[in-house]
């Protein structure tokens, strides 16, 4: 069996990465998503082990010290990281493993991992980033401001990515991501 590969998905907070991933998971059985660990507070809509594994700062630091994370970064003031073991296992099983991580994490993966695919999700208009964050209503005004500042920094990293994916219509964006996966699979078969 052919090995799978890593697909790194980044993009500003609120751009709809999570929705695209949810949709594509319904359509394909060759992909899995990595569930990150984070020190962020748990939102009311979230469940332990579904969106994230929620950790204290001490627990998180222990994972870092034990070299259990493939990458980790501070995003909007909280720590986030990707458990290494799960990713390695699933790639061996032939899966496409989706990492929904920020650009700092993506850069670490670029430096440590061969053959990953890097996709940056963009809104059709820059202003949509702010509108979507406000519409989601999960963040305070202060947190929205931090996320907008991070979005600006993130947009500067676009050039590092292999593909840009404009999330104009969810069905179209999902289809484009699926096409990227097929293309990358075909490349690896050659
Ligand atoms: P949220 O707090 O909205 O769930 O996530 C905020 C941002 O953290 C996301 O846009 C995502 O890019 C980033 N993120 C989530 N998990 C990880 C991770 O494991 N590593 C890194 N580097 N970033 C992550």
Automatic annotation (TrEMBL):
Q: Per the record's keyword annotation, is Ubl conjugation included, yes or no?
A: no
Q: Which family does it belong to?
A: Belongs to the guanylate kinase family.
InterPro entries according to UniProt: GK/Ca_channel_bsu, Guanylate_kin-like_dom, Guanylate_kinase, Guanylate_kinase_CS, P-loop_NTPase
Q: Which Pfam families match?
A: Guanylate_kin
**Annotated GO CC locations:** cytosol
| Swiss-Prot/TrEMBL keywords | ATP-binding, Cytoplasm, Kinase, Nucleotide-binding, Transferase
Q: Which SMART domains match?
A: GuKc
Keyword flag ATP-binding: yes
Q: What is the enzyme's main class?
A: transferase
Stated name of the protein: Guanylate kinase
- The UniProt record lists the EC number as 2.7.4.8
The places in or outside the cell where this protein is found are: Cytoplasm
Q: Which organism is it from?
A: Helcococcus ovis
| Catalytic activity from the UniProt record | GMP + ATP = GDP + ADP
Cross-referenced CDD domains, in alphabetical order?
GMPK
Function as written in the Swiss-Prot or TrEMBL entry: Essential for recycling GMP and indirectly, cGMP.
Q: Which molecular function term from Gene Ontology is one that the record holds?
A: GMP kinase activity
Tell me which residues make up the Guanylate kinase-like domain.
4-182
